[in-house]
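> call design_seq(struct)
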């Protein structure tokens, strides 16, 4: 029955040019993780026009029955590397370490054919969208090896895909080819002018103070947010949080900085962690955890009980720090796996981050409303004026959605059903 409803939705609103109403579904509305009965009117140009119980159908609008189906806003992947995705076969990383992956990709970037990023990134974006991801923030290397090629190709995809998927680009200013900070300083303005966000990886810089100044001054000059790969390691001797916090205060970037990974927090004593956590809360700093990369790359030098490399997911989220979860790398030397399914990432975050079963809804918020806020997405959620980027599925609630995923679902991108996996077969009816 529900599969039949989804099949009708997949075919679309029967050519109506006046929009359509999703009738009888259970929607996750802004500020709530509880499904509530609501009809949703979607305008002809792909926005939510109205939401409410027993909504009157606008004149000439079509009606699509979604009785009993769960309607979620599209999932958000707040941290990917679309310039690296799909390079696994071309950039082997036999050590399985973070440094091995960096070296493998740097060597690949020096010999990559022109236009190479476009094909690989498009494939991953298609797969993500088909699994319900309707917004992605991607870091893109800008350095002496990769130059501007990846950024320019992804800027074109950002425009081409604008009606299907919101793509936000981070100019990921990499220091490690020769630690040439003069090159970075000379090129950062051109990179940030094209990108949406300023990014970097301070733990890799031999002079992290000068490096952080280059990044933060550029963010202030261009009025851009900052997203750092911060302390993607487990060495308690060298956390860089205080140096970042000092620059947030100096440049008045409170509420505009996100720290990705923050793995070292798990290696610090509890009181040291709590002091950093309090500064994060005071400066409105968000965190993005990347379980796939941390589980795969960290702790490989340990023979016994290798540490898992995630940050303190449970303590951060329970103390009110905004924390999202994301894919990081998909099928490249950093992470050899990845399907683009954010429900899978939410599941791993719950398991590896030691959340409780009672926090399944929290894991859901980490791929929806929290990353939307951290990315500053405008018009996200099921509310009038928002883009009609939705996942309609046969789950009862967000807890079952995260726990096991749907059997059947349809993704709507700006109101249009996009190609989805086949809806499969109907179970034999029990009644007779
Ligand atoms: Zn990353």
């Amino acid at each position: 029955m529900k599969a039949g409803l989804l099949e009708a939705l997949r075919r679309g609103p029967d050519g109506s040019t006046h929009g359509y109403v999703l009738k009888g579904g259970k929607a996750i509305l802004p500020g709530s993780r509880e499904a509530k009965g609501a009809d949703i009117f979607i305008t002809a140009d792909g926005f939510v026009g109205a939401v409410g119980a027993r909504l009157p159908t606008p004149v000439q609008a079509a009606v699509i029955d979604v009785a009993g189906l769960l309607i979620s806003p599209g999932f958000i992947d707040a941290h990917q590397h679309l310039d690296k995705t799909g390079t696994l076969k071309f950039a082997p990383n036999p050590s399985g370490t973070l440094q091995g992956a960096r070296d493998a990709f740097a060597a690949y970037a020096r010999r990559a054919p022109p236009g190479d990023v476009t094909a690989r990134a498009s494939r991953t974006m298609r797969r993500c969208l088909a699994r319900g991801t309707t917004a992605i923030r991607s870091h893109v290397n800008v350095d002496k090896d990769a130059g501007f090629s990846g950024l320019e190709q992804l800027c074109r995809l950002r425009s081409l895909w604008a009606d299907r998927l919101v793509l936000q680009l981070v100019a990921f200013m990499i220091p490690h080819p020769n630690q040439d900070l003069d090159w970075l300083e000379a090129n950062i303005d051109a990179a940030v002018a094209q990108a949406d966000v300023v990014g970097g990886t301070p733990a890799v810089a031999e002079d992290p103070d000068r490096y952080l100044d280059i990044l933060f001054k550029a963010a202030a000059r261009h009025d851009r947010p900052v997203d750092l790969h911060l302390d993607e390691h487990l060495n308690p001797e060298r956390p860089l949080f205080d140096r970042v916090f000092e620059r947030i205060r100096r440049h008045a970037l409170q509420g505009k900085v996100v720290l990705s990974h923050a793995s070292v927090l798990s290696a610090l004593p509890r009181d040291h962690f709590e002091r950093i956590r309090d500064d994060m809360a005071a400066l409105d700093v968000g965190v993005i955890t990347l379980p796939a990369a941390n589980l795969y790359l960290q702790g490989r030098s340990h023979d016994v009980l290798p540490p898992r490399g995630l940050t303190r997911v449970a303590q951060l989220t329970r103390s009110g720090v905004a924390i999202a979860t994301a894919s990081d790398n998909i099928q490249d030397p950093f992470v050899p796996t990845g399907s683009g399914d954010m429900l899978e990432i939410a599941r791993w975050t719950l398991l590896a981050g030691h959340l409780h079963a009672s926090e399944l809804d929290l894991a859901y918020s980490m791929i929806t409303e929290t990353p939307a806020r951290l990315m500053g997405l405008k018009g996200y959620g099921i509310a009038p004026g928002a883009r009609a980027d939705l996942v309609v599925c046969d789950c009862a609630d967000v807890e079952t959605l995260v726990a096991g995923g749907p059997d059947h679902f349809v993704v709507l991108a700006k109101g249009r059903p996009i190609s989805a996996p086949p809806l499969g077969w109907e179970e034999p009816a029990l009644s007779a």
